[in-house]
Amino acid sequence: MEVGIAYDLKSDFLLPPGSPEDALEEYDSEATVHGIARALIANGFAPRPLGGRRSFIEKLLADPPDLVFNIAEGFGSRSREAHVPGVCEMLGVPFTHSDPLALAVSLDKAACKRLVSACGVSTPSFAVVERPSDIAGISLRFPAIAKPAFEGSSIGIRRSSRISDAAALEAKIGSLLRDYRQPILVEEFCPGPEFTVGILGNGEGVRVIGVMEISPRTGSFEEFVYSIEAKRNYLTEVEYKVPPDRPRDMLEKVEAAALRAYRALGCRDIARVDLRVGADGEPKFLEINPLPGLNPVTSDIVILASRCGLTYEALIGNIVAEARARYGI
Fold this sequence. Notes:
CATH architecture of the largest domain: 2-Layer Sandwich
Strand content: 15-25%
Number of domains: 3
Number of helices: 11
Oligomer: single chain
Number of strands: 12
Strand order of the largest sheet: 10-9-8-11-12
Distance between the termini: 10 Å
Helix content: 25-40%
Structural class: alpha+beta
CATH class of the largest domain: Alpha Beta
Order of helices and strands: EHEHEHHHEEEHEEEHHEHEEHH
Largest sheet: 5 strands, antiparallel
Radius of gyration: 19 Å
Shape: globular
């Protein structure tokens, strides 16, 4: 069975001068594509690189594979992660991971929060700022955190993103609007422990891989931000705890909230859900990534899965197996 790999590499893009230095953080490296290819071979499949954007479409039209393994982030809009699955749907080519709607709504942090909240998942109070004049209408409690509304991989999130007063909020929002040219999500900061939950499956077969706590190695936990600096220096700045040393009832609530969010958004095959405990002691939904990073060494869901006894090859094999079962191929 031939499995084509859809992807976008950092090296595929040339950004204009003045772009934020983390603008390409979501995009993959050749190491990730090679790792997935090796894992596919280990599972008995024949991998073929397809790339992304126009090249992907041309290759799909000329010679479609039996299945597309999709890790392509897309480019240029809040619906960019829906581009590759949209093309696959239109051409009738089976693909892994979620459908275009789930991917598009999940990348829009505010739309995602509104949807999961309507389905009973608790999320921090938040507001969306599209222009500086919107700041006057914000009535959130401090501390707060501000981040670009349509990004992943902690793009635009720094240690300084935790904000303690109105003046700092105004300055932070001004710089984010200028640098990222998109609406800014502002939400009340959760001072409790942060968790990420790996989920696999579809329908009645949806299950939690495991829960991982993300803790700072130094500094106050109550002020910890899982920032882009922390992710880039994860070996020295953060500690990943699997399983977390937390009360079982708390972890059960974390798992339940993650599963409810996964189902509410109609995710498929795999996703990673990020939550943090609020001042009231209850887990709050932060965001979901139905296209989680799959770098064989550094990606959160890979680290989580490995510490739960699931090898990289088995993780990739499970994603493909779930997709094949959905399509009956």
